[in-house]
Amino acid sequence: MSKSMVLAAVVSLAFATAAFAQSNTATTIQVGAFNNSAVSQSGARNAATTAQIGFVNNSYVGQSGYHNAAGVGQAGLVNNSIITQRR
């Protein structure tokens, strides 16, 4: 197989994967103060995890679709977190 055919196959696969992207994972880790995190995902089987250590941290995770999972862990003072999930 020629190099150009291999390159064409790789490019085609990359675009096909982007078109049907699901099962995504987002991980955010923040240490300190006055941190903000926002994760937005749509589709099926997505996962989001946020960990914040410090004070006055804010976290938002929004997911739409099926079989999604989200978790937030915060240690410190005056932290806020919102998770919304819908079909």
Give a brief rundown of this model.
This protein has 87 residues and is of the alpha/beta class.
Distance between the termini: 45 Å
> Strand order, biggest sheet?
1-3-5
Q: Which outline best applies?
A: elongated
What is the number of beta strands? 6
- How many H/I helical runs? 1
- What's the alpha carbon Rg, rounded to whole Å? 18 Å
List low-pLDDT spans: 13-19
The helix/strand order is HEEEEEE
Task: Give a short account of the largest sheet.
Answer: 3 strands, parallel
Assess the beta-strand content as a share of residues: over 45%
Overall number of domains? 1
Helix/strand-derived class? alpha/beta
**Helix share bin:** 10-25%
Average pLDDT confidence is 85
Structural notes for this entry:
This protein has one helix at 3-19; strands at residues 25-33, 36-42, 47-55, 58-64, 69-77, 80-86. The termini are far apart. The protein has one domain. It is α/β, with parallel strands linked by helices and 87 residues long.
Topology record:
Layout: H1 3-19, E1 25-33, E2 36-42, E3 47-55, E4 58-64, E5 69-77, E6 80-86
Parallel strand pairs: 1-3, 2-4, 3-5, 4-6
Features:
87 residues, elongated
